[in-house]
Design brief:
It is flat, with a radius of gyration of 22 Å. The chain is an all-alpha fold and 148 residues long. 78% of the residues lie in helices and 0% in strands. The longest helix has 32 residues.
């Protein structure tokens, strides 16, 4: 019977950071990293202990920085790829790198998410009086819709 491989805290943290970059897709991450699906799923279910959780944060930051660098390099390469007919592949790679970088940093990854984040930020910066006025306006608007 084959003996189970032991993974270091660094390896676990790195795998969990990649999992974060893959939006929690355990199958995809396991396939990419060559880690058994059941092993990675177990790490997700049991949750990392404190050392791994802290390492995971650092690994996410490192991975986000590497992805940002890749996105920059692809951005610079994009104009040179137009004639080589690899524009779509280059643009897609750049978009994926940016999306994963934003996921790792906890930033919005879609236009809808960005709009919601901007609205939430705007509401957060409002004074109490402005919030009350907005609440009254929304209530009045809602009442008018129901009456129609």
């Amino acid at each position: 019977m084959a003996q189970r491989r032991k993974y270091s805290d660094q390896e676990k943290a790195g795998a969990l950071a990649v999992l974060d970059a893959n939006s929690g897709d355990v199958r995809k991450t396991a396939r990419i990293l060559g880690i058994p699906y059941t092993t990675l799923r177990e790490w997700c279910i049991t949750g990392p202990h404190n050392d791994v959780a802290e390492l995971r944060k650092h690994k996410k930051i490192d991975l986000a920085q590497r992805l940002e660098q890749i996105a920059r390099e692809l951005t610079y390469a994009l104009p040179y790829k137009i004639k080589a007919a690899n524009l779509q592949q280059t643009a897609t790679s750049m978009a994926i790198a940016i999306d994963k970088m934003q996921l790792l940093r906890g930033q919005p990854t879609s236009i809808a998410d960005i709009a919601v984040a901007q609205i939430a930020d705007r509401i957060e910066r409002m004074t109490d009086d402005e919030r009350s006025a907005l609440a009254r306006q929304l209530s009045a608007d809602h009442s008018g819709v129901e009456a129609e």
